[in-house]
Amino acid sequence: MTPAPGNEQRVHWLYRPGSTRVLWWVAAVLLALALLAGVFVHVHASFAFDDWFGFNAVYGFLSCVAMVLFARVLGWLVKRPDDYYERPRNGAQRDGEPRA
């Protein structure tokens, strides 16, 4: 998003073209470092699979995917038409609407 000619306002750093790519790289590096930290930190596991390398990362990712899928299904189940609150009930007619 560039300012119009003659309007020299500062553009927020999130709106600059290269910022999105930089943020993705920074997030990927931080996630890789968090995963790599599992090599150096001993985990006191409660179950056998808790001790697997990268278990927490995989579990967190799959939990996030499950929440998104659940939200999609829930949205599909409870969705209403766009005019749900504007429609008349019990055959009543809206103000200014011609009779059929």
Describe the structure.
The chain has 100 residues and is mainly α. It has 2 domains: 1-41, no CATH class; 44-85. Helix content is 46%, strand content 0%. It is built from 2 helices and no strands. The chain has helices spanning 19-40, 55-78. The chain is flat and about 75 Å long. It starts with 18 loop residues before the first helix and ends in a 22-residue tail after the last helix. 0% of the residues are buried. The mean pLDDT is 84.
Shape: flat
End-to-end distance, in Å?
Answer: 50 Å
Structural class, by secondary structure, is mainly alpha
Number of structural domains: 2
Number of strands: 0
User: What is the rounded Rg?
Assistant: 26 Å
Uncertain stretches of 5 or more adjacent residues: none
The share of residues in helices is 40-55%
Please write the string of helix (H) and strand (E) elements: HH
By DSSP (H or I, 4+ residues per run), the number of helices equals: 2
Largest sheet: none
Strand-residue fraction? under 5%
The chain-level mean pLDDT equals 84
Task: List the main descriptive attributes of the protein structure presented here.
2 domains; 100 residues; flat; mainly alpha
What topology emerges from the helices and strands here?
Elements: H1 19-40, H2 55-78
Question: What's the short story on this structure?
Answer:
By secondary structure, this protein is mainly alpha-helical.
